[in-house]
Structure formats: C-alpha cells, structure tokens
Amino acid sequence: MQTEGPIDTNFHSHSPGYWPIEAMDQWGDYKWQLKNAVKSLEGIERHIQLTEEERAGILLSGTRLAMSITPHFFNLIDKNNPNCPIRRQVIPRVEETWDDPQEMADPCGEDSHMPVPGLVHRYPDRVLFLVTDRCGSYCRYCTRSRVVSGVGEQHLETQWEAAFEYLEKTPQVRDVLLSGGDPLLLSDARLERILSRLREIPHIQFIRIGSRLPIFLPQRITPELCEMLKKFHPLFISIHANHPKELTCEVRAALGRLADAGIPMGNQSVLLKGVNDSVEIQKALVHKLLMCRARPYYLYQCDLIKGSSHLRTSISKGLEIIEGLRGHTSGYAIPQYVIDGPGGGGKIPLNPEYIVERDETKVVLRNYEGKQFTYPEPQSCIAK
Ligand SMILES: *Cc1c(COP(=O)(O)O)cnc(C)c1O
C-alpha cells in the first residue's frame, strides 16, 4: 500500500492548486467556494484520476450522503496517492454500500432523545441543537448522515419555536451546543438571531458552535462574522480537523481571527483507518493545532455509522495513540479519547491503563516510560 511520505509539519497554502490562476480573484470569497464545490463525477475527474472503488462510490452516493468538496479542501488532495488521507475523508468509496449488521443509521441514539425535533437532550445540563442539515463538504463517516445533505431517508425538521420554548422552560440546561449540519453555513444575520434568542434565556450560561468550516472553508471566517460572534460570549467553537495536512496557512489565519475574537477553540477529531491512525500523524496534528490556538478536545472512536467499516479501526489503536502522546508531549496537546456508547450511551472516556496493581494500602503505577512508582494510600483512609 502506498503511503504518504514523511509527515510535513509546516503550514502551506495550496491555491490555486487544481484551479486556473484566474480563479484566484474570487478564491477568498466563501460564496464562490460554495458555488464551485465539486459535486459530480465529471467535476472530480476534471482534476484527478479516480480509482475503481472511488468511481463506483461516487456513482452510488446519491442516495446515502451527497458528495460535495470545497475547492479549498479539494486542493489538499494528492492526485498521485489513491490512499491520500484527504481523499478517504470526502470522496465516496464503494465500501460505503457494504452491509454490516452491526452498523446503524442513528448510532448515537439521537432520535430517541429529542424532546422537540432538532433538539437532542441526553445529558442533564446541556443540549445539542441541530440548526441546519447542510455542510461545507460531507465527511464520509458522518454520524448524522441519516439527516445531513438532503439525499438520505430522513429529513431534519427542526421546530424552532418549540425548541426555544423547551429551552426557556428547562432551567437545568446551562449549555447549548449548536450543530447540524454546519451552523456557520447560516448567514451572519440568521446566526445572530439564533444566538440573540438563546442569550435572552437567563439560565443558558454557555454557548458553543460545532463547525468544520474553519477547515473546509476558512474563507467563511470573515472579520464581520467574528465581530458578530464576539457579542455572545462566553462562546466556544469546536472545530474538526483529522490530519495535519488540513491545517494550512488559510486555516491558521481563520483560526487566528476566531482566537483574536476571544473564542476558545477545541478540536474534535475522529480516529479513521488510513487517515490518522498512527501516533506520528496524531502528534503532528495536535502540535499544529496548538500552533493555531485550538486545543485538542476529543478523539472519537468512529461511530458504527452505516457504510463506515472501511474507515473504522480498533480501540487498541486509539489507546496506543493516547499512550504515545501522554508524557511524550504537552498535556495541552492531548485529547480525551471517547466512544459514543452505541445506541445512545453518550460519550464514554477510554484511557490506557496506568495502574499496575492496587490494594487497600497502595497503588502501583507505571509512568510513560514504563517505570513503576508506588503511591501509599493515606493511613487515615485504610480500613482498620
Ligand atoms: C457530545 C454531545 C454533547 C456535548 O458533550 P460534551 O462532553 O459536553 O462536549 C451534548 N449533547 C449531546 C447529545 C452530545 O452528543
């Protein structure tokens, strides 16, 4: 299997890339990027040669999850490497049609936790608010592919008024997470109306937005958007980068604008086979994220979403990655590895085992180098 060369940890610009130099006049305009997103077989084949698996995948993708790739992100594709980690994330493959009885349409059991359509209330004090079904580009392992992109079996039917009323009369909700789809695809005005409405509810302390647009479409992070968002603090943004290559100069500048607007950022990445399933790649990713002022937040074990078997890897691989980071690099660079409990268990943390032995009087631990250390339990806590 052909793999990528040595991991490049520098920031690069990839434009105009596959596009003619004249396109550079409009390159920075996010509306142009969306209008020129690559959505068809012909559109892709104009630029790169596809493998049989990709070709078949694209022809079959119209009923599961649409394909759409912004020119910005498309330019990260290595045309000479069929195993390019960018290709595997956004170009459909025939394996998506493989049937695996353990896979689910709604692996996180969201539909059964919706008090109002579009509002998922699983944890006591926070909710997930689905505000659109569109994204800048579609990740092939999307956990919400049942409702996202508009071609699947279900449709997102967020009931806006009922959702706001539910939040108003549910004082235990202190944290609202806007997601979708990608909330930053909404216009500034629309987003501002939603945020203002949430800020009118006194018990909502904390608002966050989950978005991959800083990665797929950094042009969307305009100074005007940042000016608007900073009126709603405390506001956090969870971004989604999986591979160091995604952190380009344009992305670093966009994340810098968000950070300068006082918006703390966390990164949520998904552990994907053939994309980022090695300690070296993850280490390069987390180091570049810190350079962009985004803290690694979660590393997700890939959900059992339909059509994702070729992208999933083992839990031992995830644990090996965390073990390869802890102690070996800055604590700020280490995400929490989690599995969303299949069927609706919520996020469950997974950690390598550092306890070698434990009894009433002591705990024997190993450190990142494998050396052992004993911590005696306080005398007062030992049962007599
Ligand atoms: C992930 C998620 C949240 C937020 O969880 P945190 O651990 O606080 O980031 C909230 N609601 C639902 C349904 C989620 O899936």
UniProtKB/TrEMBL annotation:
<dbReference type="InterPro" id="IPR003739">
    <property type="entry name" value="Lys_aminomutase/Glu_NH3_mut"/>
</dbReference>
<feature type="modified residue" description="N6-(pyridoxal phosphate)lysine">
    <location>
        <position position="347"/>
    </location>
</feature>
<keyword id="KW-0411">Iron-sulfur</keyword>
<dbReference type="Pfam" id="PF04055">
    <property type="entry name" value="Radical_SAM"/>
</dbReference>
<dbReference type="InterPro" id="IPR025895">
    <property type="entry name" value="LAM_C_dom"/>
</dbReference>
<dbReference type="Pfam" id="PF12544">
    <property type="entry name" value="LAM_C"/>
</dbReference>
<dbReference type="GO" id="GO:0050066">
    <property type="term" value="F:L-lysine 2,3-aminomutase activity"/>
</dbReference>
<feature type="binding site">
    <location>
        <position position="139"/>
    </location>
    <ligand>
        <name>[4Fe-4S] cluster</name>
    </ligand>
</feature>
<dbReference type="InterPro" id="IPR007197">
    <property type="entry name" value="rSAM"/>
</dbReference>
<dbReference type="InterPro" id="IPR013785">
    <property type="entry name" value="Aldolase_TIM"/>
</dbReference>
<keyword id="KW-0413">Isomerase</keyword>
<dbReference type="GO" id="GO:0046872">
    <property type="term" value="F:metal ion binding"/>
</dbReference>
<feature type="binding site">
    <location>
        <position position="142"/>
    </location>
    <ligand>
        <name>[4Fe-4S] cluster</name>
    </ligand>
</feature>
<comment type="similarity">
    <text>Belongs to the radical SAM superfamily. KamA family.</text>
</comment>
<keyword id="KW-0004">4Fe-4S</keyword>
<keyword id="KW-0663">Pyridoxal phosphate</keyword>
<keyword id="KW-0479">Metal-binding</keyword>
<keyword id="KW-0408">Iron</keyword>
<dbReference type="InterPro" id="IPR058240">
    <property type="entry name" value="rSAM_sf"/>
</dbReference>
<dbReference type="GO" id="GO:0051539">
    <property type="term" value="F:4 iron, 4 sulfur cluster binding"/>
</dbReference>
<keyword id="KW-0949">S-adenosyl-L-methionine</keyword>
<feature type="binding site">
    <location>
        <position position="135"/>
    </location>
    <ligand>
        <name>[4Fe-4S] cluster</name>
    </ligand>
</feature>
<protein>
    <recommendedName>
        <fullName>L-lysine 2,3-aminomutase</fullName>
        <ecNumber>5.4.3.2</ecNumber>
    </recommendedName>
</protein>
<feature type="domain" description="Radical SAM core">
    <location>
        <begin position="121"/>
        <end position="333"/>
    </location>
</feature>
<dbReference type="InterPro" id="IPR022459">
    <property type="entry name" value="Lysine_aminomutase"/>
</dbReference>
